[in-house]
Write a structure and sequence with these properties.
The structure holds 3 protein chains of 3 kinds. Chain A has helices at residues 49-56, 79-85, 102-111, 118-123, 126-146, 161-174, 191-208, 219-225, 243-248, 250-265; strands spanning 11-20, 23-33, 38-42, 64-69, 72-73, 87-89, 179-183, 211-215, 228-233, 236-242. By secondary structure, chain A is of the alpha/beta class. Chain A has 2 domains: 1-86 and 177-269, 3-Layer(aba) Sandwich (Rossmann fold); 99-176, no CATH class. In chain A, α3 packs parallel to α6 (161-174), α5 (126-146) packs across α6 (161-174) and α7 packs parallel to α8. The two termini of chain A are 17 Å apart. Chain B is an all-alpha fold. In chain B, α1 (2-28) crosses α9. Chain B has one domain (2-214). The longest helix of chain B is centred in the first third of the chain and has 27 residues, at 2-28. Chain C is mostly helical. Helices cover 74% and strands 3% of the residues of chain C. Chain C is built from 11 helices and 2 strands. The longest helix of chain C is centred in the first third of the chain and has 29 residues, at 2-30. The chains are: A alpha/beta, B mainly alpha, C mainly alpha. Chains in contact: A-B, B-C. The interface between A and B is medium-sized, with 37 and 27 residues.
């Protein structure tokens, strides 16, 4: 897998700062995610990681700084426009469309890139019929990529937790993003499930060549997947480097790695 | 006897048209409106004034009535939805709007104020209604099963997630509102040309309530559900000759009971289908699942 | 003329303030607009009326019955129509529909049982006026202002000094954390509804005395929403300020422009505020629970 070389980084955060009244959730955060890279964003709870995601996806506005996607500024844009420009994001507490079927959840993501007009919808013109069929097929393909094709008609919230997480990922993939943001995809999973998930993420990364930014607390998942890691604490940068460098960094070791570090020492699958 | 029955069916179909629009707005997009009777009234008055004072063709007037509803919906919706009002503020704003329309209708010269507009040509016949209702239901069904409809459903389910799926929340809601306002306006025009007489006091919160109750009882997430509920709401009291007032008591109670015991209403998220009817048949006549 | 209008405005403002406080109280704890509050106010009014007219009780006792009756009804409303939804963590749309249903049910039940007659309170103070330097104010209005402010002050005292009061104020920030700290949130919510109901009883009685008692008088609570929004939803002092401001400005519009425009003015003000300054003067809550 090629390391970051020539090209424009997919994502650039420059001096990103976010204040909520008296609290500074993110202070002067600067890093880049290179094309094709899997980057980890770690730090204790409250470090500002999810805030960073919310800033990148436009849910919060920036107090200072800039965010650039593939060379184009996205600071201050509406969230749905940022999504259309190529960022997909999963949520820490799963936000599936609970009453809808698994398939419909993915179809809605695919709808993002459809372009037929409202009038065509009302009259159900042939183009609509064709696109509807095409979208259904593509949705099934995305479900197959995560192993959920058998559950396409099941209600999203009727599925076990682990499968809901996979559906969230399938949905994010269906947005055909240039950058994938995963917010604690392994949350609530036991070690076996997390390794399974790590394998899935690596497979997706290889199949789709998807640049990924990953927030995670399961250190074994982080170390197994991430080429580069950015460490935050209290809203500020604590350290940045390759997985090996972070594992040896005394500041980071002191604060965070503990148990996860010991497990990460042993060879993974 | 037939003329009585056909009258009830006609009235039912008029309300079905308006309710289908509201079903898209409340049921599928998740926005609550306390003033949809206002769009109905706007459509009624627009169509009636056009045919009565200006001799406009009936069908053109109907279309204009619908368009008037839609345009007003756009005007009201643009500022209130852009402000991303939370659901209850929005509902209160629609209430205010309903009030404003009522005052307007009672005070403009051309609407002849509270006395109303008599002598309208009764061009609304059952065949006309059957055609229009079918068209409206067909269009609504098409909308729901397209990317535009699914965007509305996503907004209802979880608007934060919907935004993360590239859905423009504001436009989705506005589209829904304009469609429902158009349907209500169209129904209003048909209503005016059915009774031959309209006055502001006919378009009260009673009407808005009945429509909302039908959407909730029929199932938020279904088109056929609200259609059936509307026909039941119009048909049964007629059959039982129940007085209007108790009808409303029942609606109020029904709304609360449905919210508590069966929030998905009659049809839930599904539509009436051949399989469903077969399933009921089996269960009723053959006792148990087959 | 100016001072006269101001005084009249203050009198109605006091009543609006009372309604707005009751409404804001519930809103601040549950982050939900209780659309049924108006019907509780209406019932308070009827209770006071019938206590005086049918039971021949003196006004003090009638007010007491009204406070108690409305408190109990408000509490029951919560228990029956809202708490099942809260347990299910239903979305705010469902709460609103349940509240609407309750309002419609209660209003029309009164309509059906008691009838549509407008009842005027026996003239206890209604006829007498105090005149000073050419400006007169009804004794009723003086009493209403005095009583309203006494009630609000009593509530304020309770919220600031008593343990339960402090618990309520804590809950208005975060009811879940409150629960974690050992406060029984079910009891707290019940108590808040009792208090809001009590306030509704008082405001209903004075509204009835000042104007007329009829089944749909509850819709005047729309003014309560407006007042609460002006002051800032979730803020009790804000509700008081909002109530007074609304009463005064509305009366001025009514006196200097026209009374027909009055309601349209109030609602337009509401919509404008919601779009431009939804936090109002002192308010906090913006985010809807998703």
């Amino acid at each position: 897998m090629s390391r970051a070389m020539e090209t424009t980084p997919v994502l650039e955060l420059r001096g990103v700062t976010k204040r909520f009244g008296g609290i500074t959730a993110c202070k002067d955060i600067t890093f880049n995610v290179a094309k094709g890279q899997i980057m980890g964003l770690i730090g204790p709870n409250g470090a500002g990681k999810t805030t960073a995601f919310n800033l990148i996806t436009g849910v919060y506005g920036l107090s200072e700084g800039a965010i650039v996607l593939e060379g184009k500024a996205i600071t201050g844009k509406r969230p749905d426009l940022i999504v259309r420009q190529g960022i997909a994001r999963t949520f820490q507490n799963i936000r599936l469309f609970r009453n809808l079927s698994v398939l419909d959840n993915v179809i809605i993501a695919l709808d993002c890139h459809e372009t037929y007009l409202l009038g065509a919808s009302f009259l159900r013109l042939p183009i609509v019929v064709r696109r509807e069929k095409a979208v259904r097929e593509q949705a099934m393909a995305f479900l197959a990529a995560v192993g959920l094709e058998g559950k396409s008609a099941v209600r999203a919230d009727a599925m076990p937790y682990g499968l809901q997480r996979k559906l969230e990922i399938a949905r994010a993939l269906a947005l055909k993003p240039r950058l994938l943001l995963l917010d604690e995809p392994a949350a609530g999973m036991n070690p076996e499930e997390s390794l399974d998930l790590a394998r899935l993420i690596r497979k997706i990364h290889e199949d789709f060549k998807l640049t990924t930014l990953l927030i995670e607390h399961h250190m074994d998942v982080v170390m197994a997947l991430c080429e580069r890691i950015f460490v935050m604490n209290f809203g500020e940068k604590l350290a940045e480097g390759s997985a090996e460098e972070i594992q040896k960094d005394p500041d980071v070791l002191k604060a965070y790695l503990g148990e996860g570090f010991k497990r990460a020492q042993h060879p993974q699958s | 006897m037939w003329s009585y029955v056909s009258g009830v069916i006609s009235l039912g179909l008029i309300y079905v048209i308006a309710t289908v629009g509201l079903a898209v707005f409340t049921g599928f997009t998740g926005l609550f409106s306390l003033g949809h009777a206002a769009f109905f009234a706007i459509g009624a008055y627009t169509a009636a004034i056009l045919t009565y004072f200006y001799g406009v063709n009936f069908y053109v007037a109907l279309a204009m009535g619908g368009a008037a509803g839609g345009i007003v919906g756009l005007l009201i919706g643009y500022p209130t939805l852009k402000a991303k009002l939370r659901t209850d503020y929005f509902a209160i704003a629609t209430l205010g709007f309903g009030e404003a329309i009522r005052v307007l209708l009672e005070n403009l010269n051309i609407t002849q104020g509270a006395r109303g507009l008599p002598g309208i040509h009764t061009d609304t016949t059952l065949p006309v209604l059957l055609v229009v209702t079918s068209l409206v239901i067909w269009c609504a069904w098409n909308l729901i099963h397209s990317r535009h409809g699914r965007a509305c459903i996503a907004i209802r389910e979880d608007f934060v997630a919907a935004e993360m799926m590239g859905v423009n929340i504001f436009i989705g809601r506005l589209r829904s509102l304009v469609f429902s306002a158009f349907c209500a306006g169209l129904a209003g025009g048909l209503f005016a040309h059915y009774f031959g007489f309209i006055q502001p006091s006919m378009f009260t919160s009673y009407m808005s309530t009945q429509m909302t109750a039908a959407v909730v009882a029929g199932g938020m997430g279904s088109i056929s559900g609200p259609v059936i509920a509307t026909l039941i709401f119009i048909g049964i009291p007629e059959a039982l000759r129940v007085a209007n007032i108790w009808r409303l008591v029942a609606y109020g109670l029904l709304l609360v009971l449905i919210m508590i015991f069966r929030p998905q209403g009659l049809m839930g998220y599904r539509e009436l289908s051949a399989d469903m009817v077969k399933g009921w048949y089996r269960r009723i006549w053959k006792g148990g699942r087959a | 003329m100016f001072v006269q209008t101001l005084l009249t405005g203050l009198a109605i403002g006091g009543i609006y303030a009372l309604m707005a406080v009751g409404y804001s109280l519930v809103f601040s704890i549950l982050n939900f607009s209780n659309f049924a509050y108006g019907s509780i106010i209406m019932l308070g009014s009827y209770i006071a009326y019938f206590s005086m007219v049918k039971l021949g009780l003196p006004i003090g006792v009638a007010i007491l019955f009204s406070i108690l009756g409305a408190a109990v009804l408000c509490y029951l409303n919560e228990r029956l129509a809202y708490s099942p939804l809260r347990k299910r963590r239903a979305s705010s749309l469902f709460f609103m529909i349940s509240a609407m249903g309750t309002a419609i049910f209660l209003e029309n039940l009164v309509y059906a049982i008691v009838g549509a007659h407008f009842y005027a309170f026996p003239a206890v103070f209604t006829k007498s006026n105090i005149t000073y330097h050419g400006v007169s104010i009804g004794v009723l209005d003086v009493f209403a202002i005095a009583f309203s402010f006494a009630a609000i002050y009593a509530l304020h005292f309770f919220l600031q000094k008593s343990r339960t009061g402090i618990a309520i104020r804590a809950a208005s920030y975060d009811i879940q954390v409150c629960g974690l700290n050992g406060v029984n949130d079910k009891h707290l919510i019940g108590l808040v509804f009792l208090l809001a109901g009590g306030l509704a009883g008082i405001s209903g009685t004075f509204l009835g005395m000042k104007y007329i008692v009829y089944p749909t008088m509850g819709w005047i609570t729309n003014k309560a929403y407006i007042a609460a929004v002006i002051g800032g939803l979730g803020s009790l002092p804000g509700a008081v300020v909002g109530g007074i401001l609304l009463g005064v400005t509305e009366t001025f519009v009514s006196a200097y422009v026209s009374s027909v425009v009055r309601d349209v003015f109030s609602f337009s003000l509401l919509v404008l505020l919601l779009m431009v300054m939804p936090t109002g003067l002192f308010g906090r809550f913006l985010e809807e629970k998703v």
